[in-house]
Write a structure and sequence with these properties.
The structure holds two protein chains of two kinds. By secondary structure, chain A is mainly β. Chain A is built from no helices and eleven strands. Helix content of chain A is 0%, strand content 51%. Classes of the chains: A mainly beta, B mainly beta.
């Protein structure tokens, strides 16, 4: 079945530094990738949608300059949290889909726990 | 807009008990409906889905039926196991923009 690999699974960084999270579709071409943020004991909040080769579409209230998303190929999307602060600490999850391919649906990565100290 | 409402947890059951987690939705058109499961510290895994009214999704003993008349997609399992302990999310996809809308999740704990 479809597999999405997300790395790193956890990261601790100092306040003011940037962190990059990778999301790779291993056995299919992901035309669209999604980035979510999940707060403790809460649902997933969609941050942005990215299509290969084009700029990401951010949800209302998400700072595009802080959360940089790049989808340079059909198998890789990256989320960079720039100038991270403690309030950015969260669980970030990516998902990927191959539009038009019903069998793939939405495949989720295993998530990245970001802690900013 | 689209929304998903699912019963708030946590839900605590004994092994072999019957499970129901309610889910209702609001959407225009004919969305696809999903149940996802999240084990501690992990991402989401698709548990089952239904794409049209009266469809029944099933997997690993879990079932849910797409009820358009009641706009519901309740999750059921006849006999839960300790390994079913996880957070369960109901979600819909409107079919027009490939964006999923999630419910808030229900934490299920099954005790031996």
């Amino acid at each position: 079945g479809a597999v999405v690999s997300q790395h790193p699974s956890w990261v601790i960084c100092k306040s003011g530094t940037s962190v990059k999270i990778e999301c790779r579709s291993l056995d299919f071409q992901a035309t669209t990738m999604f980035w979510y943020r999940q707060f403790p004991k809460q649902s997933l909040m969609l941050m942005a949608t990215s299509n290969e080769g084009s700029k990401a579409t951010y949800e209302q209230g998400v700072e595009k300059d802080k959360f940089l998303i790049n989808h340079a190929s059909l198998t890789l999307s990256t989320l960079t949290v720039t100038s991270a602060h403690p309030e950015d600490s969260s669980f970030y999850i990516c998902s990927a889909t191959a539009q038009g391919e019903e069998n793939y649906g939405y495949t989720f990565g295993s998530g990245t726990r970001l802690t900013v100290v | 807009g689209n929304s998903v409402t699912q019963m708030e947890g946590p839900v605590t059951l004994s092994e072999e008990a019957f499970l129901t987690i309610n889910c209702t939705y609001t959407a225009t058109g004919y969305p696809s409906l999903f149940w996802y499961v999240q084990y501690p510290g992990e991402g989401l895994q698709l548990l089952l889905k239904a794409t049209k009214a009266d469809d029944k999704g099933s997997n690993k003993g879990f079932e849910a039926t797409y009820r358009k008349e009641t706009t519901s997609f309740h999750l059921e399992k006849g006999s839960v196991q300790v390994s079913d302990s996880a957070v369960y999310f109901c979600a819909l996809e409107p079919g027009s923009n490939y964006k999923l809308t999630f419910g808030k999740g229900t934490l299920l704990t099954v005790n031996p």
